[in-house]
Every structure is written in structure tokens, then in C-alpha cells.
Amino acid sequence: MTRIVNCVVLKQEAEGLDAPPHPGALGIRIYENVSREGWNKWLERLTMIVNENGLSTADRESLEIIEKHMLGFLFQEGVMGSLPQGFQAPGAKK
User: Fold this and answer.
1) What is the C-alpha separation between 16 and 19, in angstroms, rounded?
2) What is the chain's percent helix, strand, coil content, to nearest 5?
3) Which residues are CB-neighbours of 82 under 8 A, at least 6 positions away?
4) DSSP letter, residue 76
5) Which residue of 9, 10, 49, 55 has the fewest C-beta atoms within 10 A of its own C-beta?
6) Per-residue pLDDT at 84 exceeds 60
């Protein structure tokens, strides 16, 4: 049976994740409040954040920055999580 969550990213009910995607309390919070589609949107943003900022998931300081972006993107907490002002994706029309 599919688990449905009220997704904080999509602002609607959607299919939930199969398991917490992150360790600890934050992972549980994500599991309970973010849909599979919402999580995929985060993963797309994460790729951009890692590439644009030269971050490494093997580096503790980078992981702290990534978590701040994650909280901003998923839950609108803190000052991180938004696209930089004026950002345009590669190939976007100007």
C-alpha cells in the first residue's frame, strides 16, 4: 500500500518515501513530511548546490552547508535553500 504524506515541498498530498533518506531526527522529519517527488526536487537542487559551491559529501563542513540548504529548501528554515538572485539554469532563455 502506498504511503501518502502532505508534502511541504509540493504543498499537496503525494506518495511518500519508502524510508528516511537522511540519518537522525532530520531524516524522520523528511520521511514524515516530504513526498518522493519533493525529495527528487531536492536532489536536483542538491546537485546544483554541490557543483556551484564546490562541495564534497565526504567533507564535514560541506555536509553542514548542505544540511542548511536542505532545511531551507524543504522546510523554509534559515536563510539558505533559495536559488541565488538572478540565477538562470544552463540553457534557460534570458
Assistant:
1) 9
2) 45, 10, 45
3) 72, 73
4) -
5) 10
6) no
Q: Which amino acid is at 66?
A: I
Average pLDDT over residues 3-16: 98
Phi, psi of 5 (to 5 degrees): -125, 155
CA distance linking residue 44 with residue 49, whole number of Å: 9
Residue whose C-alpha cell is 559529501: 57
Give residue 94's pLDDT: 56
Q: Express each pLDDT in 10-55 by its tens digit.
A: 999 999 999 999 999 999 999 999 999 999 999 999 999 999 889 9
Q: How many residues are recorded in the chain?
A: 94
Name the 3-class secondary structure at 50. helix
Q: What is the pLDDT, as a whole number, of residue 80?
A: 76
